[in-house]
Every structure is written in structure tokens, then in C-alpha cells.
Design brief:
By secondary structure, the protein is an alpha+beta fold. Helices cover 56% and strands 20% of the residues. The chain is elongated and about 170 Å long.
């Protein structure tokens, strides 16, 4: 009897000790379950995906941040320059694509036209084009004849100027002087006759309007010209006359050069007009005869080649766009943003320092949704369910009760953690129960000891 009572006493002492060590207890009437744990919060490390010099840090320890808020800004000057290059490459690729697609469209239109043949109105239009080309050839030929005539006239003028200059240099011959003297005598005789005729009517009031007056004036002018010519032959050529003769030669030579240049231009225009006529006539012949099989095959090959070039150009545009998108994504990642709403728990970077890939720059904590994990003995496991309400208290705020909700119950039993159990308690198995605690005013902090009561 004494041995049996002693055994029962030891069992009760062991149970009480085990319950106390596990942080679990019952109230006097056995309706409430109590357990103890530690407040914890979800911590998120803000890291850089690439290296870069830090330009700005927009949050300090203890600051609240919102998801998407810019926290750290890295230097993006190099990426901005690379983006300009990528943007220029994309524009060039798009230009090449437009040209290639235009070539493909033109090649396809040419093939379609060859297969369809010429329409009557196209033949009429081409015939009109041939007539217009013939007119251009005729016009160019007429211009050629005119320019050649101008060249011949310029050459004749040059020959006359050269002969005149040679005559002035050599002086007048005796027969020329005699002929000039005879001409002067005849002019003087004519003046005498005209003067006699005028004297007969000189007394009249209208003498100035009569033919005798005009005849006298003309005879006088002719006499002066003959006298000047005679005296000039006697004196020989003067320096101004020689200079004038040289200028006449130079002017004639310039006219020859200009006429020759005009002939070259006219010949080029004639060749162009004749080539245009030949091309128009060939197109007319082609339209009237229709396309040959080998022409259709060649046009089909051109279409295939143009389409291949257009497809390659589209691929180049896609590649250039993808390269630009990559740079834009890298630029976006130069601004490191908050992944969650929370509080900055720690800050390990300052402006001017270099961020390394994977290195923690800031640590954020979700203090609005802290958790507390407690361990329940196996015999109490069945009394708790997910979603069950609980009351949480901490020593820092005596008398205040925080609302908690069971978030998760472990699916696997485990030995009681060594840091909270006695040697005897480690032999027992427990289940972890995680509770979500309402902390809208952020009073609860990670690491606070907490007591949990399950009603």
C-alpha cells in the first residue's frame, strides 16, 4: 500500500514538472490552456541583384515603408548611355525593316504584274510614253543642230577677227590707199552736187524738211567716213585699234568654247533622250509580248529573296527591342524597392558605398503581423484547431490583451526544444502551434516573451 501510494505521488510530481517546463498549464476548472513563447516577425532582406555605387538611401532604421517604395538608388549613368545606343540600334533596325518590306512589296507587285499581263490601258499609256520619248529625241536633235550652227558662226567670227588683226598689223596696201582716195574724191563730188541742189531751195522756210536737205546731210556723212578711212590708211593702225582687234579675237574664241560646251551638253541630252526612247520602246514591246517563263522565274526568285531579307530585318528589330528591354529592366533594378509593408529593422549601406550582388542593404520586418509559436503536449494537441482565437499578453504591457489566431499546427511531433526544457521534459514529444497576432499599433516587438491563453 505504501509502495503504491509512493508511485502515484512520483507520477503526479513528474506530470506537474513536465507541464511547467513545457510552458503549458491549465486553470483551476480545466477549461483554459496556457502556453508561453516568443514574439517573432517576418524579416525580409533587401538585397541588390547587381553591383553599383549607391546614390541615395531613402530610409533609416525604424522608418515605416510601403511595398514598392524606393529604398536604395544605384548609379545608372552607364546603363543610360547603353540605352541610348540600344535605342539608336532599334531605330536603325526599324529603318532597315521598312526598306526590306518595301522591297518585298515591290517585288511581289512586279511578279503579280508579270503573271497577270498588261492591261489595255497600260499599253496605251506606254505607247504615249514612247511618243513623248520620241519628241524628246527630236527636240534634242534640233538643239544639236542649233548648237553646231552656233559653233560654226563662232568659228567664222574668229577667222574674221584674226584676218582683221593681221590686216591692221601689216598696214594698208597701195591699191587700198588708191581706192580710198578715189572713194574720197567721189564723196566730195557728191557733196558739191548736193550743196548746189540745196542752195537752190535754201531761201525757203521749209528748206530743212525738203529732200535736198537730207541728201546734203547724207553726202556729208559719207564724205567724212571716206575721209576718215583714207586718213586712217595713210596713218596705219593705232594701238587702240590693235587692242580692239585682239579683243575681237578673244571674244570669238570664248564664243567657240561656249558653243563647244553647249554641244557637249546637248549631246548628253540627246544620248539620254535616245536611251529613254529605247527603254520605253522595250517596255512597250514587253507589254505587248507578255512575260516569258524565265522572267516569271526570275521575278519569283526576287520575291523569295526580298521576303527573306524582310524576315531577317524583322528578326533584327526583335533582337534590338529585346536588347533595349533588357537595359530597361536593368535600369528599373537600379532603384531597389521595398518588397513588403514593414519597418526598417537594420540598415547596412550608405550613399557613396558600392553595393555587391546578394549583399543585404536593409532588413525589413512585418511588425503588423507578428507571430508567436508555442509547444503543446501530445495529449493537448486535439483541443486546438486552425483559426481558433487566443489571447496573447506580454510583460511589457501588463493588463493588455492582444488578439491572436491559430495559423498553423505542426503535422509532425517533435522533441521539446532543448533550450526551454529540462532533461526530463526532453523525453516527451510536443506539437508546435503558430499563432498570428494582431498588432495594428506596432506595440509588439520581435523577441518579447509572450503568454498565450486558449479559451
Amino acid at each position: 500500500m505504501n509502495k503504491h501510494f509512493a508511485a502515484i505521488t512520483l507520477i503526479l510530481i513528474f506530470a506537474v514538472s513536465l507541464s511547467a517546463c513545457q510552458g503549458v498549464s491549465l486553470n483551476g476548472n480545466g477549461n483554459e490552456l496556457k502556453a508561453s513563447g516568443t514574439i517573432s516577425a517576418t524579416e525580409v532582406k533587401v538585397v541588390a541583384e547587381g553591383s553599383g555605387r549607391v546614390v541615395a538611401v531613402n530610409a533609416a532604421e525604424g522608418d515605416p515603408v510601403q511595398a514598392g517604395q524606393a529604398l536604395v538608388v544605384l548609379d545608372a549613368a552607364l546603363l543610360q548611355a547603353q540605352r541610348k545606343q540600344a535605342d539608336a540600334a532599334l531605330a536603325a533596325a526599324k529603318g532597315n525593316q521598312a526598306a526590306a518590306e518595301a522591297n518585298a512589296t515591290a517585288a511581289q507587285a512586279n511578279l503579280d504584274q508579270l503573271k497577270a499581263g498588261a492591261r489595255p490601258q497600260e499599253i496605251v499609256a506606254e505607247q504615249q510614253a514612247v511618243v513623248a520619248a520620241q519628241g524628246r529625241v527630236s527636240s534634242a536633235q534640233g538643239q544639236m543642230a542649233q548648237t553646231r550652227g552656233a559653233l560654226q558662226a563662232a568659228e567664222a567670227q574668229r577667222d574674221q577677227a584674226v584676218a582683221r588683226f593681221a590686216q591692221l598689223k601689216q598696214g594698208a596696201r597701195s591699191e587700198q590707199i588708191k581706192a580710198a582716195a578715189v572713194a574720197l574724191e567721189q564723196a566730195e563730188a557728191a557733196v558739191r552736187v548736193a550743196q548746189a541742189n540745196y542752195d537752190q531751195i535754201a531761201s525757203r522756210g521749209d528748206a530743212g524738211r525738203l529732200p535736198q536737205s537730207l541728201a546734203l546731210q547724207q553726202a556729208t556723212l559719207q564724205m567724212e567716213a571716206a575721209k576718215s578711212n583714207y586718213e586712217g590708211l595713210l596713218k596705219g593702225a593705232t594701238t587702240p585699234e590693235l587692242d580692239q582687234a585682239r579683243a575681237g579675237i578673244n571674244q570669238a574664241v570664248a564664243g567657240i568654247v561656249q558653243a563647244s560646251a553647249t554641244i557637249s551638253q546637248t549631246e548628253a541630252a540627246l544620248v539620254t533622250a535616245q536611251a529613254g526612247l529605247t527603254a520605253e520602246q522595250a517596255r512597250l514591246d514587253l507589254l505587248q509580248a507578255g512575260a516569258r517563263p524565265e522572267q516569271i522565274k526570275a521575278a519569283e526568285a526576287q520575291v523569295a529573296a526580298a521576303q527573306a531579307q524582310a524576315e531577317a530585318a524583322r528578326g533584327q528589330v526583335a533582337a534590338a527591342q529585346a536588347a533595349l528591354n533588357v537595359i530597361d529592366e536593368q535600369l528599373a533594378r537600379m532603384t531597389i524597392r521595398a518588397p513588403i509593408d514593414g519597418i526598417v529593422l537594420s540598415r547596412a549601406i550608405e550613399p557613396g558605398e558600392v553595393a555587391l550582388p546578394g549583399g543585404a542593404l536593409l532588413v525589413l520586418g512585418d511588425l503588423q503581423h507578428p507571430t508567436v509559436t508555442v509547444y503543446l503536449a501530445e495529449d493537448r494537441y486535439g483541443t486546438i484547431r486552425v483559426g481558433q482565437a487566443a489571447q496573447v499578453t506580454v510583460d511589457s504591457f501588463p493588463g493588455r490583451v492582444f488578439s491572436g489566431t491559430v495559423q498553423r499546427i505542426a503535422d509532425k511531433a517533435e522533441f521539446t526544444p532543448r533550450n526551454v526544457q529540462t532533461v526530463e521534459g526532453r523525453r516527451a514529444t510536443v506539437f508546435a502551434v503558430k499563432l498570428l497576432v494582431l498588432n495594428s499599433d506596432l506595440k509588439l516587438k520581435p523577441g518579447m516573451p509572450a503568454d498565450v491563453v486558449f479559451p
